[in-house]
Amino acid sequence: MTTFARLLLRRVALLIALLAAVFVAVDLLPGNTARAVLGREATPEQVAAKERELGLDRPLAVRFIDWISGVATGDFGRTARGRSINELLADKFPPTLLLGGLALAVAVLASVPLGAWWATRSRGAAARVLQPGTTVAAAVPEFVLATLLIMVFSLATGWLPAVAITGRSGFPVSADMLVLPVLALAIPQIGWNTRVVRAALADAARAPHVETAVLDGLSTPHVLARYLVPFAAPTIVASFATTVGLLLGGALVVETIFNYPGLGAVLAGSVADRDTSVVAAVVALSGMVIMLMLAVADGIRAWSLRGRR
Length: 309
Description:
Shape: globular
Number of helices: 12
Radius of gyration: 23 Å
Distance between the termini: 20 Å
Mean pLDDT: 85
Structural class: mainly alpha
Low-confidence stretches: none
């Protein structure tokens, strides 16, 4: 078995273990799924009947095995209220994917040039500005940053809307409603990835062939493109692959703050209903996207290291 296959199997096993933990965690939450669906006025007999209908009277392990078996065939099951989870995810995942994709694009477009600038001017103004700036940006949680952005750009100046209004398409009705959620997600990742890019390029710059290229009088852009970036690419790409997971996790919080029509609202509602299948489906879908990005990062790493072993 190849190294890549072993790594993929390990990640799949980790995802299954995480989903099992989600089932246990939601089951331990106070409350009752059947009563949450039926309402407070439901009689004990109605609640018991609903539990049998939903299969909640079965052992948790049996319910998890049945659910994960369905996931293996592409069927996430149905919500406690009877809707297909596949349809629910198909409606709500694209807006979250748009939000996370825009935030990832902003993070890449900002952190790569900033990290390169910092790496090539490590003793100048770049270091004095980016050293504390990236530390603060990476340390601020998304929900704190989202609140600050709303206070400044919505309440104080009125430049941008504080909430997203959904159109018939399921997406925000105007592009300006995306600005603050995207910034709230992207800024911490810009701070972190700028430091990663700078460190990766600085490590690559210590290689003997790079020092020789500098002594030969090659220009800084040429040295970056020809000698530094290919050697630093595996570390940088792996960092951005990890960023995808952080963006998806952060999006669930940011969406709630900005009333954004994505998986955040689905997750909040499913937790309120104690709907284990929906919570696990959101985690599974996010995990699949993260594994895909990590596989891409592994492929780029293998390509960049070809002939160097």
